[in-house]
Amino acid sequence: MMRAVLISAIPVLHFLNKNSYPVYLPEAFLLWVLIFAGFWAVQRVCRQAGMSWIFYGLTLAFYLDFFVGSGRLALAVFLAVCLLRERVARIFLTVSWAAFAFVLILGFLNPTFLYSSRASSEGQGSPAKKPHIFVFILDEHGGLVDYPDIAKDYVNKGFQVFPRAYSNYNAAWASIGSLLNASTEGRQVLMEKVALKQNRLLEGLSREGYPVYIYQNPHVDFSQTLGFAAKKVFKYQEDSVGYLAGLPVSLHGKVWVLFNNFIESSRSKTAIKILRRFHRPENRGLYMTGALAIRRILQEMEADTVKEKNGGIFFAHIHNPHSHYVYKASGALLDPLAWEPCHSVALDNEGTLNTTESRIRKHALAAGQIGYLHKVIGDFMDRLNARGLYEDSTFVFISNYGSHIYRIHANARNRDRLTLAEYKDGYSVLLAIKNGGYNKEWPVNQGGTVQSMTPASLVLADYFHFPPKRNAEKEALHSIYLPTEDPFEWVKNSPPEF
């Protein structure tokens, strides 16, 4: 039994450390019990059959498949262990103890944190007082044409609202670069892996003397951009199960999310395939939990705002609603067993991502999460107002693309099958701006609605004074682009009327 305890603890401890999950909580213990039970059952059967080496072989094969994802190598090692038989037992136990010690030491020396920050002496504050500027990219937020009550609330707060704004792209690595650079140059020019190479919005504000504060997750790195140095970078995890620790949700729900992400984060295609048989097809995959970080991000931003006496630019990429839908509009948490993503893996070879029923259900879930998101942001603005920091501040809320609650994936291959709903789910985006006085040509703190179809990238470029470099580029930003099999190639399309 000791061997089963030891070898089952290794992958579980590694997973918990990677997700910053306290090992002493009951759900963490129950996750280990599930994994231990499997190892113990196999060990017992092998021992009763007088073939303990089979257990060693299966264990090593499991590790190779789980951590490396090589089924062939796992099979080769299993066969080799079967040939060596008992001679491998002592080696196996020694290696297991060494691996266990390594995981413990790694967890101690290199812990993973849900939140981290670093400050830079290069990103200095402004010597002259400036109004604060807040730019929020609310990832995967659909256009306000579908949320009239939220739109009305922002108009009442002095925002210019663009209910029918649209993005040029429907993938983050293209749309974010497009928004922040008023460009269609594409991934090969604007991105280096996950790092944004150029950010004309922040570069311009930095040249004006604004200290730059960035709040981001690992999905896109805004801090490596040339042309400016951030005064502070605050990071949060986008899909860590560590956010579940201490949440007022069911224990069995927590165990299920832990177990699901334990398997889904592995490299084992076999284990993932087996696990996904227990999901509804449209809900398969890793649980994304970034929405649970919103309050902590805003707390950090509020503290930074108060400290920055002469004004700063506070730029946040929020993975909300791009997450599993975890909140009701009231702020109450859904039970984890009811969490759903916008879509999962393709349901067939035709690019179907949702059924008609699941699409309707997920739009309702997204509406609840979005309602709560804006309530939390509203509370944040109220607190700034109480400190006298709201009236003169500029706020920009924008999304990089639409809700992604497609029934059919909006790409070039499916172009002839796409309906208005697919285009809307891909390209209709949030856009609302409160001008606190930064742009002298815009009405100050005056609410209004722009009802025309509007490319969000051009509005952002106009407001922050970084127009497209060429007239042809400006014309290109009035179109939308459908992805192809080649990540660097896009098919130009006219935007439909949302």
Please characterize this protein's 3D structure.
The protein is of the alpha/beta class. The chain has helices spanning 2-18, 26-48, 52-67, 71-84, 89-109, 148-156, 172-181, 187-190, 200-207, 251-264, 269-275, 294-307, 356-386, 420-427, 456-463, 471-476, and strands at 115-119, 133-138, 160-161, 165-166, 191-192, 195-196, 212-216, 232-236, 313-318, 394-398, 431-434, 448-449, 454-455, 480-483, 490-493. The chain folds into 2 domains: 2-109, no CATH class; 115-239 and 288-493, 3-Layer(aba) Sandwich (Alkaline Phosphatase, subunit A), CATH 3.40.720.10. 42% of the residues lie in helices and 11% in strands. Helix 1 packs parallel to helix 5 (89-109) and helix 2 packs across helix 3.
Outline, from the CA principal axes?
globular
Q: Quote the beta fraction.
A: 5-15%
CATH superfamily of the largest domain: Alkaline Phosphatase, subunit A
Radius of gyration computed on alpha carbons: 25 Å
Count the E strands: 15
Structural class: alpha/beta
Low-confidence stretches: none
